[in-house]
Every structure is written in structure tokens, then in C-alpha cells.
Amino acid sequence: ARWLPDGNLEYLGRIDHQVKIRGYRIELGEIETALLRCEGVKEAIVLAKKDKEGQTYLCAYFVADKKWTAVELRNQLGESLPFYMMPATFIQLEQMPLTSNGKIDRKSLPEPDQSLHTGTNYEGPRNQVEQQMVEIWQELLGVEPIGIQDNYFDLGGDSIKAIRLISRLKNLGLNIQIGDLYRYPTIGELSDRLGPQEQLQLEKNKSMKMLEIEALKQEVLKGAGWSKRSN
Q: Where do the segments described as Disordered lie (predicted)?
């Protein structure tokens, strides 16, 4: 809590239910309340989790009478929550695990498996450009498989990882900005946005890379052959 200038005391919530992510202080109870407003949702718990790189993200667990997808929940919650309070992962349960006292056992909640909650059917890459983009997304997000219609943010992507993603794509010769990822959050949409020249440049880069690898192999083989003859 905190004192206001007018002398009143403002209640900010329990400290153990507050987290700070990317500079924003977040009250987990506010997200849970927003989830409970969604149709059929009876119980909701939001926890802060750490990914493989130690970055904090939000994971929402809920019990509902109807089947929800991450896409549907994002659209619904987006009407009342700012972007920094949006859970990266949603997990729908049949029921919440309980302690012997009848309270929700937070420690027994399952670990997130983000690849199961994107809400889209898998669609593979249509060309080499999309194949390279898929490989980069899978490496940075730690999720497999990723289809070209999977939403970057539904897969656990955030603004920090977006900077690294854009840097990797630019190294391939693609002129993609951070704003493009927010407007076109799937590989399919980003690929369709690329002009013919960028598509061609990426194909050339891949061909040059293959030639460099082949040339290196030949050098290694020549060196091995020379060494063998000299002995």
C-alpha cells in the first residue's frame, strides 16, 4: 500500500502477487480478474515463470466450461489489459490442483508447453525463405514445431526477443523493423510482406552460404590429402 497526497491509503495488493517484467510492475490479481470475466471461466491463476534464457514471462492457468484458444483469449483480454500484462502462455485445465487445506496448489500446476496452445493448425514453410525464418524462431523461442501461421506473441515472444529476432533477420538481408513484427506477427504474413528483391536476396545469401561451406569442405579434404601424401 502507499499514502496518497490527500492522506488516503491506496491498496496495491499483496507483495507476493506482484511482479516486475521489463520495467512494468504487474499485479497478477488484475489479470486473474480479467480472465474470470471471460465467458465460462470459473477459476484463474497467473504465475510469473522463467524461460530458458532467464527472462520472466506470464503464464495463465484457468478452468472453464468452454474450450478457449490463446488467440481468442488474447483478443478478449486485449480489450481491458495493456500489452505488458498479457500472458505469454495460456493453459486450460480440467480442474485446479488443491492442497490438503482445499486451496489451489500453485506448486503442482503443470509446466507450460507453449507449442500446444497457439490455437492454430500447423502449416509448414512454403519456400526456403520461410524455412530459414522458422529455424530462427524455433531457436530463439525454444518451441518446436513452429508453423508459418503461428503468432509470435502466442509462442511466448516478447519485445526483448523481438530485438534479437529482427537482428537475425537483417543479417539474412531482410529489411524488417520491430513495428513489422507487431503488424505481421506470423512468418506467413512477414514472408508475404517481403518484396521480390528481398526474396531474391535471401535466396542468393543462402546459395552463397552453401558455396562457402562446400569450398571449406574442399579445402579441408585437400589439406587432409596433402598431409597423407607427405607422410
A: 102-124
